[in-house]
Structures are given as C-alpha cells and as structure tokens.
C-alpha cells in the first residue's frame, strides 16, 4: 500500500529531533555532523538562539496578514537587501522555483512594456537547475525532470555552459533574457568562468536583453560574498534568492533593478504567503547576522581552509575522491565509485552530505561552521574512503 506521505523522495531511514549549530541528533540517539544544511538552507546552523527568538516572538505577535496591508518586516528586509546589493526593489515569495518564475515574469514584462512583445524566450544553460514547477522544468531542460510531465512550457532555450563562443548563436529575435547560476549547484558544483560571465553581460548589453542570476543556492553568503556574482564584478538586472535567506524558514525573493521592477504594477503579480511577517522577521535576523562585521570574512577564511583540507582528502583517497571544486562553503568532491555509495559510507561515519549531478558529493555546511568542524568532517570523509577501499578490496578477493 502507498504510504500516507507521497513517495516522491528517496529518503534515508533517519529522522532528527534536535539540532545545535552544525550538529543534529537523530531519533536513534546518534549525533551527526551536518554538512548538507538541509540542501544549503540552514545558513546560521540549527537552533540559532537569535533566529529561534525572532521566530518565537513574531509568531506570538502576528504571523500572517496578507499583502492587502503593509508588512513592516518585509519593508525592513527589502531595505536591507537594497542597501547591500545592486537591487532597487525586492519581491518576496516562498521558494526558489517561485522566485525564478517571478524573475522570468519580470524579464518578459519589461520587454513587453519596452515595445518588444516578441521577446519572450529565456536562454538557459546545459546542466542548469532552476526548480520543479512546470515552467522551471523547462528552464532546467533536463529530460529526467520532465518525463511524463509534458507538454513542456515553451519559451526556454539552452546553450552550452561556460562556452562564450556558442553564446551569440543562441540569441534569436525572440530572446528576452539570460538566466544562469554563477555556480551550478545540482549538476555538480561548477563555477561559471569569469570570461563566460563577462560574455553574458556583453551579449545582454549588445542585444538589449536582461541578465538574471539564479542565486537560490549560491546566495546569502554561501560563497563568501553576500551574492556569488560579486566575485565576478558583473552587474545583473535581476536575481532570484531562496534556500539560505530564511535560515530554514521558507522564504524566497526576487531582487531587481528599477528598470525591471517598475513594471510589476499593482495587481500584476502576487502570492498569498509571500513576504509574510513571520518569514520576513526570520529573513531580517538571518541577513543581520550575515551582514554583521566579520561574518562573511569568516565564511571566506573557513571556506578557503576547507578547500585546502579537501585537496588533502583527495590526495589521500585515491580511487574514491579525485577532485574538489567550488568556492567558499559550497564545495563538491568528485567521486570515483557511485556517489550514492559514497554518501552512504560517509553517513555511516556520522557525516551528512548531499549528492549532486556528475557523481559529485556536495558539501554545504551552515555558514557558522568552524575550521575545527571542517577538519572533523574531513577526517570522517577519509575514514569513509578507507572503508570503501577496504570493501572494494574484499569484493575482489571473494
Ligand atoms: C534549489 C534550487 C532551486 C529550486 O528551489 P526550490 O526552493 O526547491 O523551489 C532553483 N535554483 C537553484 C540554483 C537551486 O539550487
């Protein structure tokens, strides 16, 4: 018989009842080091005292009022984002896919209002991941996510990632804008090259297109800058944000320049839950922490040290891990055996990770992680590699 909870996830047989910082305690009593952070979400770690206090206090006052009224918490969070980014205005929603939908709608609407109603197509890239709504499985383009869910939504084209030469060929009279992840996450932690990012901006300026970054995974401090595009010095027109911005509370956002944002006139777009007092109070606390002096410097320092430790893991685990990629606290280890086997071996050592495409083990710990905790994680990775090698040798013998 089908379980009451729909079977659309492949879940580990493990449930957690208490977290603290980078640690989670399972119902079986075992403690785990959490380098998955709920897929790059719990940016301040588990049970962060300030975030817990904010949510408890806000819940006791007012959780939801709808966008029929002013929401001071949303105004405060938008103000913080505008002050600290390229953006002039912010739209709140509830998830990454929804943020990307908002980003696409803004791009199309702006082209429409600017006298280009024929410009409706969004250029995306091979290996992208933009979410699971009907439009976003089209944007993602991966047939595995589309199977049986057709007809696919029109208006999304694809070109090779990190290939500046094929970029111009992909632009048509119908192209409205370009959307790219500064570091592809789901498909295996692949940073865009500087040349590619510069090429994207140049092409957008040349053809009058809008450049959107999907910063759902890379944003809110993950790579050591507030947003990953800052590493490249490239100005976007619009970005989507979710995952880490609520620290575990569901929250998404679209950050845009006035040129795009001004076309979302009253009634043009909306969501019931988007930007509610509880979610935005959580977002304000998360952002205040991340913008506090030294926080991002901490992410960069620990992230660099972690990167070096992972290089060392690679050099000492031949036949299991063969390269490390990524930046800041968004890292991937390329695996030789199937990543699912590696994840299990790593889990057996009490370390939580996330799989990614291209047979990559994803390491995205809470941003408050210390160097000592990174060292502990690397020791567990090495133990897991040893156990995998031992069982592979065993298989050869038998
Ligand atoms: C996770 C992710 C999404 C989808 O976010 P949801 O909140 O699951 O809808 C979109 N884009 C990127 C880059 C992501 O990593």
From TrEMBL:
Which positions in this protein are listed as binding pyridoxal 5'-phosphate?
Answer: 96-97, 129, 214-217, 272
SUPFAM superfamilies membership = PLP-dependent transferases
Q: Which residues bind N(2)-acetyl-L-ornithine?
A: 132, 271
Family annotation (InterPro entries): AcOrn/SuccOrn_fam (IPR004636), Aminotrans_3 (IPR005814), Class-III_PLP-dep_AT (IPR050103), PyrdxlP-dep_Trfase (IPR015424), PyrdxlP-dep_Trfase_major (IPR015421), PyrdxlP-dep_Trfase_small (IPR015422)
* Residue runs in coiled coils: none
GO terms (molecular function) for this protein are:
identical protein binding; N2-acetyl-L-ornithine:2-oxoglutarate 5-aminotransferase activity; pyridoxal phosphate binding
User: Which PANTHER family does the record cross-reference, listed alphabetically?
Assistant: AMINOTRANSFERASE CLASS III, SUCCINYLORNITHINE TRANSAMINASE
Taxonomic classification: Bacteria, Pseudomonadati, Pseudomonadota, Alphaproteobacteria, Acetobacterales
Enzyme class, top EC level, equals transferase
| Additional observations | May also have succinyldiaminopimelate aminotransferase activity, thus carrying out the corresponding step in lysine biosynthesis.
**Keywords, sorted A to Z:** Amino-acid biosynthesis, Aminotransferase, Arginine biosynthesis, Cytoplasm, Pyridoxal phosphate, Transferase
Residues annotated with N6-(pyridoxal phosphate)lysine modification: 243
Query: Can you name a GO cellular component term?
Result: cytoplasm
Q: What is the species listed in this Swiss-Prot or TrEMBL entry?
A: Gluconobacter kanchanaburiensis NBRC 103587
Give the record's pathway: Amino-acid biosynthesis; L-arginine biosynthesis; N(2)-acetyl-L-ornithine from L-glutamate: step 4/4
Catalytic activity, reaction form: N(2)-acetyl-L-ornithine + 2-oxoglutarate = N-acetyl-L-glutamate 5-semialdehyde + L-glutamate
| Family to which this protein belongs | Belongs to the class-III pyridoxal-phosphate-dependent aminotransferase family. ArgD subfamily.
**Pfam families the record matches:** Aminotran_3
Q: How does it assemble?
A: Homodimer.
Q: GO biological process annotations for this chain's record?
A: L-arginine biosynthetic process
Know the name of this protein? Acetylornithine aminotransferase
């Amino acid at each position: 018989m089908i379980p009451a909870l729909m079977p659309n996830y492949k879940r580990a047989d493990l449930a957690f009842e208490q977290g603290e910082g980078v640690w989670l305690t399972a119902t079986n009593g075992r403690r785990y080091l959490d380098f998955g952070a709920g897929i790059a979400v719990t940016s301040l770690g588990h049970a962060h005292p300030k975030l817990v206090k904010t949510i408890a206090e806000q819940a006791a006052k007012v959780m939801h009022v709808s966008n029929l009224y002013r929401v001071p918490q949303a105004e405060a969070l938008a103000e913080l984002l505008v002050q600290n980014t390229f953006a002039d205005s912010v739209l709140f929603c509830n998830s990454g896919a929804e943020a990307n939908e908002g980003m696409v709608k803004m791009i199309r609407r702006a082209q429409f209002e600017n006298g280009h109603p024929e410009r409706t197509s969004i250029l995306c890239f091979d290996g992208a991941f933009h979410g699971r709504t009907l439009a976003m499985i089209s944007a993602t383009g991966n047939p595995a996510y589309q199977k049986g869910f057709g007809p696919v939504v029109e208006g999304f084209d694809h070109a090779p990632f990190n290939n500046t030469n094929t970029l111009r060929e992909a632009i048509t009279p119908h192209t409205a804008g370009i959307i790219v992840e500064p570091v592809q996450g789901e498909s295996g932690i692949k940073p865009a090259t500087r040349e590619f990012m510069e090429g994207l901006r140049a092409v957008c300026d040349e053809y009058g297109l809008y450049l959107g970054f999907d910063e759902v995974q890379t944003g809110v401090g993950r790579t050591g800058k507030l947003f990953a595009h800052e590493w490249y010095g490239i100005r976007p027109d619009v970005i989507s944000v979710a995952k880490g911005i609520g620290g575990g509370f569901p929250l998404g956002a679209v950050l845009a320049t006035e040129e795009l944002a001004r076309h979302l006139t009253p009634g043009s777009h909306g969501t019931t839950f988007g930007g509610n007092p509880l979610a935005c109070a959580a977002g304000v606390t998360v952002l205040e922490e991340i913008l506090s002096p030294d926080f991002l410097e901490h992410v960069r320092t620990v992230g660099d040290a972690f990167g070096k430790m992972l290089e060392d893991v690679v050099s000492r685990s031949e036949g299991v891990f063969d390269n490390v990629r990524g930046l800041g606290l968004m890292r991937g280890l390329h695996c030789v055996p199937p990543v699912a086997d590696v994840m299990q071996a790593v889990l057996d050592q009490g370390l939580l990770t996330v799989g990614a495409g291209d047979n990559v083990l994803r390491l995205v710990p809470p941003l408050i992680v210390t160097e000592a905790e990174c060292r502990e994680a690397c020791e567990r990775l090495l133990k897991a590699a040893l156990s995998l090698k031992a069982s592979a040798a065993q298989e050869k013998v038998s």
